[in-house]
Design goal:
single chain; 2 helices; elongated; three-stranded antiparallel beta sheet; alpha+beta
């Protein structure tokens, strides 16, 4: 009744599958991560407009120019400022932003990431 079981490690196939899985996961993070970081920067630039002095008196073109300057300072590339929809409602500036980022992943595989934001900002 004394049975001795021999311990076994992972097989070569198991290790290969695990390495391929983590390599593909790392590739996705490296390829898609910058798009999410840029979106985070865009959010910060737009939220930073809240309470901006003279925002209520600015025209939509002036607001777009201000956002474009903030994004260029933060080195956000590939963002089209024409995607920003700006409307004025009295002293409130309504900004809506819908855009997509297409990034090359591997060979003929691309990833499309869509972002959508809506802000109601008041200036001083």
């Amino acid at each position: 009744m004394n049975q001795h079981f021999q311990q076994r490690g992972a097989s070569t196939l198991g290790i290969l599958i695990a390495v391929l899985f983590f390599a593909s996961l790392l590739t996705l993070v490296i390829k898609l991560g910058p798009a999410y970081l840029d979106d985070y920067t865009v959010q910060g630039a737009l939220e930073g407009l809240d309470g901006e002095e003279g925002l209520a008196q600015m025209t939509p073109a002036d607001v777009r120019r201000l956002v474009t300057k903030r994004l260029s300072v933060n080195n956000v590339d590939g963002f089209n400022a024409k995607d920003i929809q700006i409307e004025k409602d009295g002293d409130t500036v309504v900004i809506s932003l819908d855009y997509e980022v297409r990034t090359h992943v591997v060979s003929n595989v691309d990833a499309v990431i869509s972002f959508s934001h809506f802000y109601e900002l008041t200036g001083q």
